Amino acid sequence: MRMQRNLLASALASLLALAGCSGTLTQEEASAPAAKVFPAVKTIMNSRKVPPPVPEYLALMKTDAAGMFSFAQESGAFDLLRQMPVSNGPVSNWMSRGGTIFSFRQGMLVATRGLGDDTMEADASQTLALVTARRNGRAKRFVAHLDGNNHIVQSTFLCDVKNEGPNALAQGTGTVQTTYMTETCYGSDYSFLNLYWIGSQGRILQSRQFTGTLVGLVTFRSLDQPTVQRLTDQLAARLGTTAQ
Amino acid sequence: MSHRKGRAWAGLCASISMLALSVAQAHAQDGSTTVASEGFGTPMAEILGQEPLWARPSLSFYGTPGLIDMPGAWSLADGEGALSASNFDGNLRLAFTFQLSPRLSGTFRYSVLDKFDKTINRYDRSFDIRYQIAEEGDLTPAVAVGLQDFGGTGVYAGEYLTFGKTFDRLRVTGGIGWGRFGSYNGFSNPLGVLSDSLKSRPAHVPDINETGKLDTGNWFRGDAALFGGLQYQLNDKVVLTAEYSSDDYEAEAERMGFEHNSPFNFGVSYRLSKSTTLTGAYLYGSALGVALQYTFNGKYGPYPGGVEPAAPPVLPRDQAAALGWRLDGSSEQVRARVKAGLEKVKIQLQGYEQTSPSSVRVYILNPTYDAVPEAIGRTARVLTNTLPPQIETFDIVPVGNGLSLSSVTIRRSDMEQLEFDFDSSWKMYSRARIADAADEPMRRDVEVPGTYPDFSYGLGTYVTPAYFDPDAPIRVDAGLAFNMAYVPLRNVILSTQLRYAVVGNRADGADRSSNSVLPHVRSDAALYAKESTIQMNHLTAEYFYRPGRDLYGRVTAGYLEDMFAGVSTEVLWKPVSGPLALGAEINYVQQRDYDMGFGLMDYKVATGHVSAYYDWGNGYMTEVDAGRYLAGDWGATFSLDREFANGFRIGAFFTKTDVSAEDFGEGSFDKGIRFWIPLSRVAGEPSMSGFGQTIRPLTRDGGQRLNIRNRLYDTVRDYHDPELQEDWGRFWR
């Protein structure tokens, strides 16, 4: 059964690859994603200019605000998100260098501002309940995006949440044991697959979540404070020298 | 120094690479699962061009939905526009088609027929209109009726009724045509049963001076003929077309030596990109042709929703207290905090007033956000984050040209509760109170010190095209523009614009002097371009006022526009919500010298209009202006515009006055199309700028209005409903 499923999957993946549909991981990408990641790193290394962060981000760099790593799968863009002091109830706000804000409710992305095709609001509470309890089940997910004509477009997704078993996640210099959860969401216009790595406390340590049609899938990973500090220092040095 | 820079960067990259690797590993470990699950979904399918078959109809060489030379029955998508260029054997056609509503579309076409008039080229401008009578059903065909070159006497005049049916990859089209489309293998008009007069059509190739008349008497008259064709979508890039044309190209054969050897045309269309198609065809057994078509949708730009940085997130009062952040302070301190907060989101605080122990009113100037609710929403967040905790109500009054344009009242606790609430946009709109601000003029004592008097200036560039001169279809001037404004009081503006043309050829148009028998109120445009060096485009004093509830007023005096100086006054009645507005404008003006300096010529005229504006919803807007025009002629202008919530706007207008077609000259009456493409749609960042043009087939002297700046309807409209409601999705953006 498992074999058949994989065969079907690779057939589908090849078809999608043939169709030039890079939104989905092909067999090659899935087995060697580093190849997809590396060109992006190279691009960053070769780029002469680091676009200066927005002033609010520069201010956050001077604090010990928590950090999160983000990686947009389509564009290969990396960023170090910093948690803003301002939050609203259980929703925390994280800012990118360019001033985009990602808002999370216990690790579940509920809003973006500045990505384009922004998630204006999302209710993913049913998925959150299943994922943090590491349970299989079906969840409804409600998402509202801002379209090009300034209208809010609400959509409902039916999502299958599945516990895929234990998974070791690299963190700092070592690894941490997580439970790997998948959420396959079906909508009337499109479908997507979100991934979650759940820590022992039921906390989302890493996730890959669909943001919208413009940026697509983004991986988020919590970082420990020393890593955040190291990356910030290096970014600051880089900015300091390019400023001249 | 550079060495250190390199090392630091390498370090960051190394760190990122390690992180990237670990993320990659995490993905890799679950490769099989990932692929198995992802096989179902094509998340980005929509934006990567995985469109269904026939997602977009093919366009003919006329630039309208159709086969090769014959019209088809399908329509573009609502809001879609198509620019096209085609050429075969001396027939060059440039066309712009826009789908004005799901069923109605219009086309403007500029054609060059090689040596059509003996040795000289015929430059022909034509308008089409077509209506989709029925969309394609499971069993029923798509049906469309159209008038091509509906002036009725033009080179391309023809009417058609066309049917189409899709069978998977095959599309079949069949129809009946009149005029041009009834000229090959024609038969007696079946509509002749209705009236004998329909059996004949006054057949002649029009003289240039007769073009542009709206000759409804010719429509659907004379012989009719059948046409048809097949199209096959080979794959998602290639469409093959074969058609049988009912156009005999008689005039082209006679005058240009075109060879009509066969009624069959064959073509291959190749989709170069999502928006661009290239078609090659073999036409009439004699000519090879090529057509390039570009389509876009006015509703959707490349950055849906925009990519400008986020607004500051809401800081609820309890969280501020928990953080130990103090929100109180003296009135001046609070005002300074609000001002600084608004500056960060590029909004200017002009006035601040605490109207009760729990409410504050702010007057804001929005120079940034073309979608006004975004400005209101950002202001409301700044106020939530900066005002003392006891303030519960914000009254936000946007100010434009010194006028209080409306008043939007928002509750602070709604801001705190709804930020991440599902349906936050609609809930916020329904809880906000939008009212007339006639009773809330910004008094001097609430003005933020330093706001007025205000002095500003700027240097920019400009481009002014002139279209359709017989000697050159497009002429352009480009140069530097200097703007200066002094605003002593909020509603008094002294301003000027000076331009200097660095390059351009508009002055060449003066070689062909105007033959107009009317006062030359517009037809000497080329003389203005030729005689001027530094152009003073305007030098005016403007005064804006609110005569009462729902009323707005303007008085402008000075050098009002490029060609006229004088006094202009206007009053507008426009309730803060509701579709109807009424206005009246009276001007007394004198024509300016061609050098665009301070001098005036002898021609003086009193001109003015009463106007009715009606917003039909969904962005359909009509305007009727009736009154006296610059040449002293009396009549009315009718306009229809479609404006999407994102600001993209396209429209058409025509003016009929008591000037006879003969006196008017070529074109018979004034008409044109106009459009506005907001920069925000293209750049993905909010902006008040954009690119707009009014394109007339020909500018003559009849039916011309004064080009006065800051007419009131466009000044206030965006700050009222239904515009606010249409853009309210951006409140939380």
What descriptors fit this protein?
heterodimer, A: 244 residues, alpha+beta, YmcC-like fold, 2 domains, twelve-stranded antiparallel beta sheet, 12 strands, globular, B: 733 residues, Porin, GMP Synthetase, Chain A, domain 3, 3 domains, 31 strands
Brief summary:
With 244 residues, chain A is an alpha+beta fold.
State the name of the first-level CATH class of the largest domain in chain A: Mainly Beta
Content-based structural category of chain B? alpha+beta
- Major protein interface: A-B, 112 and 88 residues
- Strand-residue proportion of chain A: 35-45%
What is the alpha-carbon Rg of chain A in Å?
18 Å
Q: Which shape of chain B, going by the Cα principal axes?
A: globular
Q: What is the correct CATH architecture of the largest domain in chain A? A: Beta Barrel
Q: Termini of chain A, distance in Å?
A: 62 Å
Overall average pLDDT of chain A: 79
C-alpha termini separation of chain B = 42 Å
Number of discrete domains of chain B:
3
Total of helices of chain A: 6
Indicate the percent of residues in helices of chain A. Answer: 25-40%
Helix and strand layout, with pairings?
The complex is a heterodimer of chains A (244) and B (733).
Chain A: H1 2-18, H2 27-31, H3 33-46, H4 55-61, E1 67-72, E2 78-83, E3 91-95, E4 101-105, E5 108-113, E6 119-123, H5 125-132, E7 137-146, E8 152-171, E9 174-186, E10 191-198, E11 204-210, E12 217-222, H6 225-242
Antiparallel strand pairs in A: 1-2, 1-12, 2-3, 3-4, 4-5, 6-7, 7-8, 8-9, 9-10, 10-11, 11-12
Chain B: H1 2-29, H2 31-38, E1 80-88, E2 91-99, E3 104-117, E4 120-134, E5 142-148, E6 158-167, E7 170-179, E8 224-233, E9 238-244, H3 250-256, E10 264-271, E11 276-283, E12 287-297, H4 317-323, H5 331-344, E13 348-356, E14 359-365, H6 372-386, E15 393-400, E16 403-404, E17 407-411, H7 412-418, H8 424-431, E18 433-435, E19 454-469, E20 472-489, E21 492-504, H9 525-531, E22 534-545, E23 551-559, E24 564-573, E25 580-592, E26 600-615, E27 620-628, E28 634-643, E29 649-657, H10 661-664, E30 670-678, H11 679-683, E31 690-695, H12 712-716, H13 723-727
Parallel strand pairs in B: 14-15
Antiparallel strand pairs in B: 1-2, 1-12, 2-3, 3-4, 4-5, 5-6, 6-7, 7-8, 8-9, 9-10, 10-11, 11-12, 13-14, 15-16, 15-17, 17-18, 19-20, 20-21, 21-22, 22-23, 23-24, 24-25, 25-26, 26-27, 27-28, 28-29, 29-30, 30-31
Helix pairs in contact in B: 5-6
